[in-house]
Amino acid sequence: MWLPTIPGVAVIAALFIASLCVTFIPVRGMRFVAISLLCFCWALFNARQSLVSFEKWTVKPVTVEALVERTDNKQNHELQIVSVGGKTIFPSVGFRVRETYLSNHVCAGQRWRMKVSLRPVHGQLNEGGFDSQRYAIAMHQPLSARVISAQQMTQRCNLRASWLSAVENATKSLPYQGVIMALAFGERSGVSDEQKSLLRQSGTAHLMAISGMHISLAAMVGWLIARLVQLTFPAHRIHFRMPLIASVIAAGVYTWLAGGNPPAVRALIGVVIWLLLKLQGRSWSGWEVWLCCIAGILVYDPLTVLSDSFWLSVLAVAALIFWYQWMPLPRSVATARWFYRYPLALLHLQIGIMLLLMPLQIFIFHGISLSALFANLFAVPLISFAVVPLLLAGLVLTPIPWIGEQLWWLVDRLLALLFLALKLLPDGWLNIDKRFQALSVSGWVIVVIHRLSLWRNSFISVAALIFSLAVSTMRVEEKEDSWQVVMLDVGHGLAIAIIKQGKVFLYDTGNAWPGGDAAQQVIIPWLRWHHLSLEQVVISHEHLDHRGGLISLQREWPAVNIRSPLHWAGHHSCFQGDEWQWQKLQFSVLWPPKGSTITGNNGSCVMMVSDGHFRILLTGDVEAEAELAMLKRRWGILHADIIQVPHHGSRTSSGAPLLRAVAGAAALASTSRYNAWHLPSGKVVKRYQSQGYTWYDTAQSGQLTIDINSDKWQINSFRAQISPRWYHQWFGVSRDNG
């Protein structure tokens, strides 16, 4: 989780030998040290193995044989490499193919021989943003591929794919087919954006992905079926092991139907461990079973430690054990009639889950659903005791025409009822920033204080603790002469945030694409997580990669002040000679000329931002022609400490005269890896370095943060300083922009 790099094979081998030697030390407790070292070596070895594919196969195209794991039968496919250049690979390595039509019909289970250009996964890295690199490594899909040629070796689909196709045909006329396929096979691509949004807002999204609850329900159904079968047996043939084994078999079948996705596999491992502990005939406490399950899962797959869903599951089970031990149902409720007891027991459960899972929910999702308590009161029983059992029956009885159709129709109607009820709830999603992370543990604290009656015995200590948690939510007052400049990692595009006293001035808004933009994906979540208020935006020019997120930002902050050289309605002027102050920072526009009608890159609004000591030059996409025109009679005022590299490091920009006039110490470029234009140009990078600049770009460094305090400033990059983790590094060849 925390290592900046994975040690080499020699270090891992030395630790392994050390663990063996420790076992012979005749001191109590040394065997636990030895086991810990051994497990650490196993984890390091697995991490090291996950990097092998980056080092061996990403330099040049390779010929692989691969099995299709998942596909949308169109352009998007997930495969497992079983051999490279004729050599078998174990364990297999996953890769994804996007927006590529293969020559024949594709389905899971087929074997293909492909010549592919493999690329390591490379994600945008921003504080508080989604970590796609860590996710890909945890999911064992660290590669993406561009297919050069492909030949189908086997045409036959596997049993799961055939089963999936049969259910897909049986449910094709049903409105909630996408949700049915998600619950039956873990295929969530058919769930609409509207349905996903509704599930997220109501805090019920966990019910629509095959996870621990669904695998446990399948195990319970297997146990019940075995018990019913045992009713036909003579007494001497009935044994307690049969239902337990049947439950594991049922859980295994459902895990297989889910395509062996990691959450389902983890749940199956938990069920198997529970069975083994049960068969020992010893009474195991909840905490002991919990620890054994964690150990078993991490021994099976040490990289699971990188998975957010793993930690969410771990904390959820811990929260349940803790809640029922420390805050059990009152005796009056436990002995009440069933029509009082069950609703109150469910409410008691949901309150506990909501309070105790809050810290991890805020950390991972940056918010909580206020309507989740009420939504889960009816959603959990409906899914658990009606939808999933009927769905499991439908999976078995689909081949029987009338019965299968009626079962799937009934499942669809129950899902329609669920979504109708969810729509009646108000939008309960509440975005929460990082200030409340410490306060979010108050649920655990309150339970401990209540159960131990600390509010009676140690009132002052309790008051001090609550006060310190409350104080943690207050913004720390910053020095008047301190501020920040943050170049966000938005891929191909530009977004630079100038921050002072909790307010933000934004220079450009990143790119846009069908169905989304950089503001929705990066900028808005980043602003909310850091509790920042957007006050002003400058759009340097009209190209989409610089203005793509503007509409989304205006939707969130309707009163935001916008400047640009575009002459658009509602936009203030951004032309040469314009000057203004914001938060005691001086902004001076250096280009384009007043009243100019220049469009495109050379019409970019170029500005200098200064606090009287530190100066940064923001250049947009200005090219060499405009650079030279801007330099005429204005040579002296272009000096700056840092320059934002024009046009993402294109060779059409960053002329030597501009670099000499600026005479800065550092150059910051907003670039994306694998971009089609091969930016930044190697010649441009060398030109900056030969002029004495230190080069930074977001493709290499992720988010770049400049902390300024009077005449002192420092640049921190996400990969090197902010979060230097082995799974955040630049994998593959040292520089790869194509």
TrEMBL record:
It comes from Buttiauxella izardii. It comes from the Bacteria. It is a multi-pass membrane protein. Residues 492-673 form the Metallo-beta-lactamase domain. Gene3D superfamilies: Ribonuclease Z/Hydroxyacylglutathione hydrolase-like. It is found in: Cell membrane. Keywords: Cell membrane, Membrane, Transmembrane, Transmembrane helix. One of its GO terms (cellular component) is plasma membrane. The chain crosses the membrane at residues 6-27, 205-226, 238-257, 287-303, 310-326, 346-365, 377-400, 406-424, 459-476. SUPFAM superfamilies: Metallo-hydrolase/oxidoreductase. One of its GO terms (biological process) is establishment of competence for transformation. InterPro entries: ComA-like_MBL, ComEC_N, Competence_ComEC/Rec2, Competence_DNA_uptake, DUF4131, Metallo-B-lactamas, RibonucZ/Hydroxyglut_hydro. This is ComEC family protein. SMART domains: Lactamase_B (SM00849). The keyword Lipid metabolism does not apply. It holds the Pfam family DUF4131. NCBIfam families: ComEC_N-term, ComEC_Rec2, PRK11539.1. The keyword Membrane applies. Its main location: membrane.
